[in-house]
């Protein structure tokens, strides 16, 4: 798994402090940034966190590139609607010999790993065979419709991918670019850094939070699972019960 911070709003903490200053002072736009030293900016950001004024955090966005994750993981990621996504297409990109993610718990049990690998082998082969069969059929159809051979073959392969992908598993490797604003990231971290989240998306979320903290330490100082951010666990009976341990982990991440 690889998580890269591709870009972020420049001077993220200053932008947040600037937006907040507009709310709480009579400064005009031209002078809003005046006096916003590093110290003052940090003070503003900490004050905003303490009063829960999160709307000003929406002015700052972070864009990540993520690869080497499963489709099971990306499906969980894209459930977060307050974000923008671009994902490797299984229509336009040929998945012949596709890569797949093996969960560590399967890796650790030799019989399960053998069964898993055998299943992946079958699926790789099935995908290839179905794509070939459909390509042949679609090529003939396109030629009958008047396309030249080269164009027909290219279009047929794309059309074949659309249906052959139905045999691809949740384990199939994918790549995705995601942009979220800080407020949405807070919500994402609350849900996905939680011990109740699945291991793969939790690892993605932890790395995203680590990268965010490098760039905007004051903004993300208290970000993390709900028990860290809000001081209490919302999971009720399903709580992991490891509040102290989790708190320690997210202090230093
Ligand atoms: C441990 C865990 C288990 C899960 N299990 C399941 C499961 O079994 N089945 C399942 O379907 N999902 C499951 N989910 C996904 C979960 O229900 C959310 O869809 C996902 O976490 C996205 O959260 P969100 O809606 O807060 O994020 P976003 O979509 O980014 O929304 C952010 C916030 O904006 C507001 N918002 C967004 N859209 C609307 C809207 N249409 N109306 C009103 N307010 C809105 C809400 O306040 C929301 O919290 C699970 C998530 C976790 C962390």
TrEMBL record:
Enzyme's top EC category: transferase
GO MF entries: flavin adenine dinucleotide binding; NADPH binding; thymidylate synthase (FAD) activity; thymidylate synthase activity
Keywords: FAD, Flavoprotein, Methyltransferase, NADP, Nucleotide biosynthesis, Transferase
Catalytic activity as recorded in UniProt: dUMP + (6R)-5,10-methylene-5,6,7,8-tetrahydrofolate + NADPH + H(+) = dTMP + (6S)-5,6,7,8-tetrahydrofolate + NADP(+)
Gene Ontology terms describing biological process: dTMP biosynthetic process; dTTP biosynthetic process; methylation
Cofactors that this protein relies on: FAD
Cofactor note: Binds 4 FAD per tetramer. Each FAD binding site is formed by three monomers.
Binding site for dUMP: 76-79, 87-91, 165, 192
Any Pfam family hit: Thy1
Protein's UniProt keywords contain Transferase: yes
EC number: 2.1.1.148
InterPro entries (alphabetical): Thymidylate_synthase_ThyX, Thymidylate_synthase_ThyX_sf
Active site: 192
Binding site for FAD: 55, 79-81, 87, 181-183, 187
Pathway: Pyrimidine metabolism; dTTP biosynthesis
Family according to the record: Belongs to the thymidylate synthase ThyX family.
Cited function: Catalyzes the reductive methylation of 2'-deoxyuridine-5'-monophosphate (dUMP) to 2'-deoxythymidine-5'-monophosphate (dTMP) while utilizing 5,10-methylenetetrahydrofolate (mTHF) as the methyl donor, and NADPH and FADH(2) as the reductant.
Quaternary assembly: Homotetramer.
Protein name: Flavin-dependent thymidylate synthase
Organism: Ruminococcus albus
Organism classification: Bacteria, Bacillati, Bacillota, Clostridia, Eubacteriales
